[in-house]
Amino acid sequence: MKSYLAAAVQMTSVSDVDKNLAQAEDLIQLAVNRGAELVCLPENFPFLGDESEKIRLATEIAEKSEKFLITIAQRYQILLLGGGFPVPVSNASNGHAGKMYNTALLVGREGEELARYRKMHLFDVNLPDGNTYQESATILAGEEAPPVYYSEQYGNLGLSVCYDVRFPELYRHLSKNGANVLFVPAAFTAFTGKDHWQVLLQARAIENTSYVIAPAQVGMHTPRRQSHGHAMIIDPWGIVLADAGDRTGVAIAEIQPSRIDQIRRQMPSLQHRTVL
Ligand SMILES: O=C(O)CNC(=O)[C@H](CS)NC(=O)CCC(=O)C(=O)O
């Protein structure tokens, strides 16, 4: 593994797929110009809007998103994570007609698929601010544990999506399988984000002595849907290395193998796990 720059993109996706992909490319270009070799896009990067429109556009969103990730990874010669987009369930005869998986896809420099993960934990929550979220109305929960992509150059990259961050056992699974860089692409609500987002991310970094790369949605998507922002990169000690604040942009930081080794020597908690 080498030292390299990683970027967590922060954007405001709306219900216009082409506009979102254009915004994503602008921000990827910004990150690449600053030297990033691994760039991560947030959950819902190609679409964030009305649920019925998402269902109507699902096939188009899925196709355009995959094509975009492949084309852009090749064009800029980067590793590119698409942090979450709907992919229609292929076998519609199994009782899940019209449902989708909230899918994260990691693509390599030649446009090759490196890893894929279907979000396991669905955000079915009524918030005290009056907003209700029923992700399971349109999304089917993934049934396979998240993968680790083992890279000689970039480290062992563990996948997850958004609400997963509240389930530490998922990250334990990743670190047990060797992950030392964890992706948490998100569209965190403004309401929960202000109190929970950074704390949860730092906890996942500290307890797994791993880097956390957390791209984010920010701002108003619809008149009722606002995201918290603060895309960030956190080191294995839990220190926030970069924070994109509350506007669109990129959080960029160096991922250093020597830092992972150092922290895992200083705080060998992964070696002290007991079976409960
Ligand atoms: O709605 C869509 O179009 C796509 N899905 C999302 O944006 C997902 C599910 S609603 N958002 C989250 O998981 C937020 C979690 C969160 O904010 C928390 O855990 O506090």
From TrEMBL:
Name recorded for this polypeptide: Carbon-nitrogen hydrolase family protein
Keywords, sorted A to Z: Hydrolase
InterPro entries: C-N_Hydrolase, C-N_Hydrolase_sf, Nit1/2_C-N_Hydrolase, UPF0012_CS
Domain CN hydrolase: 4-257
Top-rank taxon, per record: Bacteria
PANTHER family in alphabetical order: DEAMINATED GLUTATHIONE AMIDASE (PTHR23088:SF27), NITRILASE-RELATED (PTHR23088)
Family statement drawn from the similarity comment of this UniProt entry: Belongs to the carbon-nitrogen hydrolase superfamily. NIT1/NIT2 family.
UniProt keyword annotation of Hydrolase present: yes
GO molecular function: hydrolase activity
Keyword Hydrolase: yes
CDD domains linked: nit
